[in-house]
Write a structure and sequence with these properties.
mainly alpha, about 80% helix, about 0% strand
Length: about 425
């Protein structure tokens, strides 16, 4: 296990991959801020905020397994490029729609339809990006690369909402979407410059369904991978309050889009700090227990956030929740990279996308429904309590994850 904190970042293709993913994440975060505020301004309905997440999650889930199969058979860099082009076209269309004087009855369904298209694009993007890392970085640097990936993602997730909130206040929806689309052009340039190519399994003549089933069998037979996915799935599903932040900004704190951007950025600020520390002080011993404690602490932060009526205390709690989540992201990504054979990474990433990435959007839907039924504050507190329950169940149901030491994963996984 390499101890040099800058080892992975010295690889030129890895720097390009990080830069491209940085711009994609900022672009998506800006789009998310603009869509959330635009839809809430048009509807003043908590459920509509949840439906935004559902509109993106369902297409991503639908295409995920096939996208994972493709990522293990076709050059992953090419998939990244095509998925980014699709995202850019979709967000550019949002800018055009916002410029036209459309009726609410037409504008809202059009926005949801385009969000669904971005879900398809992100369904292909996620497994390709995950798999491409192993085409670029040697195995002994996977942990270091995961820390840099996490730091970069969290930094962009922090900057994106702040930029998005500022742009929306100053220039409204059209220019905000346009800036997001321009960022995606920058990411395309980075992806084009990457020289690494995927090593394809040309000898594999198995069909689509057989390859997909192989990936599913691998995940469900591996208690560590399955336990990590399930834990994060339910923690995000119940514990996230991000979809309801426009309501907190408007009703609880009586503020506007700029406050929303700062609140959305706060968890990423905490996660960025955690990821930066982890690049220099990686976790090796007691990783499983640290994982479980961090998820439980995330749930406690959500409970406290739901009960807080002070804006600055709420920002601190959001940042603290992000720091614990940053630990989870680092451990989870390192576990997946080290535990998965290279020729199966697209499919495992696809399953992870169904478990984790889409759980953010489905969690947004759950938050919207819970807020509609219970009220905003009770729904957040309920979600935090459910997160604690999930940690308790996982502790007893996944002993291999609970007792995990990261050093044991650095041997080559069996295909």
């Amino acid at each position: 296990m390499n101890e040099n904190p800058y080892a992975a970042i010295r690889i030129p293709d890895f720097r390009l991959l990080l830069a491209g993913r940085l711009m994609v994440t900022i672009a998506v975060q800006i789009q998310s801020i603009a869509v959330g505020w635009q839809i809430y301004a048009l509807t003043k309905n908590a459920l509509s905020l949840g439906l935004i997440g559902l509109a993106e999650a369902l297409p991503a889930i639908t295409i995920a397994l096939y996208a994972g199969h493709i990522a293990d058979r076709i050059d992953r860099r090419s998939i990244l490029i095509y998925a980014t082009v699709a995202l850019g076209l979709a967000i550019g269309t949002l800018s055009l729609l916002s410029a036209k004087n459309l009726s609410i009855a037409l504008l809202i369904p059009s926005i949801f339809a385009i969000i669904a298209l971005t879900g398809f694009a992100r369904g292909f993007y996620a497994p390709a990006a995950f798999g491409l890392l192993s085409d670029i970085v040697p195995r002994e640097l996977y942990g270091n690369a995961a820390a840099w990936n996490s730091a970069t993602w969290q930094g962009s997730a922090m900057a994106g909402p702040i930029i998005g909130g500022f742009l929306y206040v100053c220039f409204e929806a059209q220019a905000t979407y346009l800036f997001s689309a321009l960022l995606l052009i920058g990411s395309l340039i980075c992806f084009f410059l990457i020289k690494a190519r995927s090593s394809l399994r040309t000898e594999n003549s198995a069909g689509i369904l057989e390859n997909i089933n192989e990936g599913l069998r691998f995940v469900f037979a591996n208690q560590i991978i399955l336990g990590a996915m399930a834990l994060d799935l339910f923690a995000v599903l119940f514990g996230g309050a991000v979809a309801l932040l426009p309501i907190f900004a408007d009703q609880v704190f009586q503020m506007g889009p700029q406050a929303l951007g700062i609140m959305r950025a706060a968890p990423s600020a905490g996660a960025l700090l955690a990821a930066t520390i982890l690049t220099h002080r990686p976790i090796s011993t007691g990783a499983g227990r640290i994982f479980l404690v961090a998820v439980a602490a995330f749930g406690l932060c959500m409970i406290a956030f739901g009960l807080s009526t002070n804006f600055y205390l709420s920002l601190f709690l959001l940042a603290l929740s992000g720091a614990f989540d940053g630990i989870n992201v680092y451990l989870r990504n390192t576990i997946y990279q080290l535990s998965t054979p290279d020729d199966m990474k697209g499919r495992v990433a696809a399953v992870n996308s169904m478990f984790i990435n889409s759980s953010n959007e489905i969690g947004a839907f759950e938050s919207g429904v819970a807020a509609k039924l219970l009220g905003v504050v009770p729904s957040v507190v309920f979600g935090g309590c459910m997160t604690l329950l999930v940690v308790l169940v996982t502790t007893f149901k996944a002993p291999k994850l609970r007792d995990l030491n990261m050093q044991s994963l650095y041997k080559e996984p069996e295909s």
